[in-house]
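Hey,
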Amino acid sequence: MMKLKQQHYALLLASVLSSPLVMAEDAMPAAEATPAAAETAAAPAAAAPEVAEAAVAPEVAGPYSMSRSIEVGGGGHHVSGGNGDWNSAFVSGVWQTDTANVFDWIVQNDHRFGESGTAFNGGWNHDINQDWFGRLEFGKSSAGTFWADKHYGAAINRKWLADRNLVSTFGFAYNDNRQGYSDRVYTVGLIYYFDGPWVVEGGIHRNLSNPGSVISTQGYGAVTYGRDRWRQIVLSVNSGSEGYMPVGNSASQQIFDSQYYSLGWKEWIGPHWGVHATVDYYHGTYYQRSGGSASVFWDLP
């Protein structure tokens, strides 16, 4: 049972960062997001289920048999339109306590649009039974209109098919933003785990922002290749409309289209450590952004 979970909980932190705290643009799929890039307060995505053994890393015996890790890194982005470049630094972790519970967290400091702020997000992932599992999360930031002041999220997920390798997810998130508006984000999605080292994912974020009952919708998709303790490559894209977008201390923009593309590569160099790099590009009505992040991670006993 533990062996079948190993790869998928390793993907969990990326799932977390695609959804949590975050801001009011660039909704991303669950499969891949770096802290420097994740920006829409999307509802929590599915943590991964137990699936076909071919996609799973060789069994790790002893103290490294659970998904426990820490990651430290930073990133930078060039932003058009005289909006100033971005930079960030972060530390994040995953800690599995037993076969049914995984906790994750991230602390990140960003400088964007002439502002700086630090944010924290934490999540709890719980296996209810062999078919159902869920997630709760909470986030808080210290400053910066690009961060949500507070974030709350929950998701319920269901495994399907004989091998339980198709997962449906429904998530809800609420974000209290510093510029006087709030977001209610609903997410529905599907994840399919192939027998080999491939995962495909797709879904929709539906966002209701107030005041004004501003409705926006974004679709997302991702393809993942690889397995835990070897290599994971993720190509992701999302496209659609955005509701509110804070740009520093200026007034938030409303209802416009945007696209986001990301390519991530996570490589184990030693048995219990490696590097993780991501490049991404965002195209919106008000500015374009390109850049990436790099980090080092360690698996923990």
